[in-house]
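Q: What changes when zinc ion is included in the input?
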Amino acid sequence: MDTTVHLIDRGRIHADANFVLDGSTVAVASAQNPELEYAEFLVWNLVIDHPEATVLWDTGSHHAAGDGYWPAPLFEAFAHVDADEHRLDDDLERAGYSLGDIDAVVTSHLHLDHAGGLHHFAGTDVPVYVHEEELKFAYYSAKTEEGSVAYFAPDFDHGLHWEIVHGDRQLLPGVDLLHLPGHTPGLLGARIEAGDDTLLVAGDEAYWRENYENEQSMAASLLYDNRAWFESLQRVKELERESGADVLCGHDLRQLEEKTRWG
Ligand SMILES: [Zn+2]
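A: The predicted holo structure follows.
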């Protein structure tokens, strides 16, 4: 039995494209009031169906994101318009899995469009893999006035069975976690061997293909460390050159048309 990887559609976020492509719309002398681009973003999770374990990669937004669960200013900026139609258990069911099938969770980072389904694993012994730097920064941000507003304690402040990742680490044979700091301090990506496919999970290192291919960063508000972001990008590109892998970006809607299954 080979590994297969399934991309699970977890809904759409609507937001200004300037967040994703830094300076995508700017005023110039001859056009001082340009029209902003209000764009649509894909939220996805992965099920990594490995012979030794079934792994859930990220948990999406909380299903009540639009019903007052997310702080209003955050929903105004990043409107997850259909979160209520995308409960994690329902979306897994549609893909042929159930919450009970999940042996381990990897949380690429703890922003609220990635950690909103962790509550399903509260009080269980399902290990939740997270980078050390991420967990520290998430608590620092959510529990003080410092840090980033994109961390929301009710997402992750549960009785979770955390498994702390300190650097790169093999999760399973053919599934390697990569520390890709930049977007956040502890962002995790992965290199996954699935049958004849190699998949590089860049995730929120590159929201859209343009971030990856043109090396055009996200806006400063979505970059914890610009320099680290650039170095992580070079690292993923080097791995792509070595392996000819498919690269999976964090929020690119075009991915649904391209490929949703590996292996
Ligand atoms: Zn994200």
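Observations recorded in class: The chain has a mean pLDDT of 97.
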